[in-house]
Amino acid sequence: MDLQSGTLYWPTTVGNTPEYPKLTEDITCDALIIGGGSSGAQSAYRLAKQGLRVVVVDKRTIGGGSSSTNTALIQYAGDKSLAELSASFGEETAVRHLKLCEQAITDIEEACANIEDQADFIRRDSLYYASTAEDIPALKEEYELLSKHGFKVEYWDEKQIAGLYPFRKAGAIYYSNDAEMNPLKYIYGLFRQVEHLGGRIYCNTEITGKTFEKDTAVFKTKNGHTITAKYVIMAAGYEQAEITPSDNATITSSYVVITKPVSDFTSWYKRSLIWETARPYLYLRTTKDNRIIIGGMDQDTDQTLSRDAKIGQGRDKLMNAFHHMFPEINTEPDFAQGAFFAGTVNGLPMIGRNEEYPNCFYIMAYGDNGTVYNMNLSKIVTDVITKGNSPDLDLYLHNKPKVH
Question: How much is the pTM?
């Protein structure tokens, strides 16, 4: 899958890119992780901390997949509201999911504490505004439901928003303690920790075959070498949808602009994350080097040529939308990219389990909170591997909407 095109920003922010060898021998390990992106890094980190002998392989370079275009708005609220998830799964299950995502942000923060530059992790609040006045009733319902279950949120009316931002919106939910970070620094930092804990990492190593025995799995590489493991985590990101198709998975195209550095953020309250109720939605964040990331303008296409043909158009639309909201911030686009984006129909990420070999798991952290979902799902799979079970596995394993 040709995951992204255009000019990529995150690789320019990493001065010391780690290099990993290609696998050139037959090896054994406790846990094999296939995929060197966010899900692979967080899974490897958790398992290595538990003392397992971990091996990670990727057919590309480490961090060379979708992680290079991950905009890394670290939030617990997702594309489907708590009210919508409650309608599909029941209120108790929906709240449980959001609480797990909230905890995952803390887990990411703790992991970043051991990484050089802490992966530029910083806590940010989020402004989630009504795109139109017609969205206000649902927005207020969402606020009441979040408040009921102890999430730290406030409801702001038009006057409150206009008093803190240079734009007017009919209403908004203001979330506290979300975050932002540099996703590529995070992945590289986690893999350095994995190596420190004895893990082995290989790039340009493509898996082409597998056999399952009673207690072991044997995976064969394109160059004819084998990796024998008891546990396997398939962490192939969006390409996992091609390996293990699911009716719940969707693939669309999304566009992102990263601006030139900005000198003055006075008008941007607390440099908060910003997004909206419209679907698809516009979203904004800032970076450590004072750039602005503007994303959205999603297109319902999974074709590379169609996606790439719209990068220039997406860049212009995103910049126009930004200047409409922040007319006093004078900046220009510096990077523009188009990328595939995987989501789910029902709003929950997924964990798959191989029927032939239950010790083989598939992490499919699809949705707008992929980094958070990956931390959540990797924690669950690690518990299953090291403790025999997780009380949260049922929430994401072969999940289907329940009727209430």
Answer: 0.93
CA separation for the pair 403, 250 (Å, rounded): 22
Non-local CB neighbours of 307 within 8 Å, separated by 6+ positions:
5, 253, 299, 301, 338, 339, 340
Find the angle CA(209)-CA(213)-CA(217) to the nearest 5 degrees. 50
CA 271, distance to chain mean position in Å, is 21
What is the spatial distance between Cα 106 and Cα 225, in angstroms, rounded to a whole number?
A: 39
Around Cβ 196, how many Cβ atoms within 10 Å?
10
Asked whether the beta carbons of 194 and 48 are under 8 A apart, the reply is: yes
Q: pLDDT tens across 251-265, in order? A: 777 889 999 999 999
Is 8 within 8 Å of 67 (Cβ atoms)? no
Gap between the Cα atoms of 293 and 260, Å rounded: 10
d(CA 365, CA 43): 12
Token pair for residue 239?
């390409």
Residue found under tokens 């290079």: 68
Structure tokens of 58? 């990727």
**Position of tokens 């398992």?**
47
Cis peptide before 401 (omega within 30 of 0): no
Q: Identify the bridge partners of residue 286 per DSSP, sorted by sequence position.
A: 292
Instruction: Write down the H helix ranges in 115-197.
Output: 136-148, 158-164, 183-196
Q: What is the pLDDT of residues 31-66, one digit of tens each?
A: 999 999 999 999 999 999 999 999 999 998 998 877
Rounded-to-integer distance, Cα 57 and Cα 80, Å? 33
Q: Which of 327, 207, 349 is nearest to 267 (CA)?
A: 327
Strands 54-57 and 200-202: parallel
| Coil, strand or helix at 367 | coil
Amino acid 89 reads F
Between CA 183 and CA 74 the distance in angstroms is: 10
Please report, for residues 179, 315, 387, the alpha-carbon distance to residue 393 in angstroms, rounded to integers and kept in the order given.
26, 40, 12
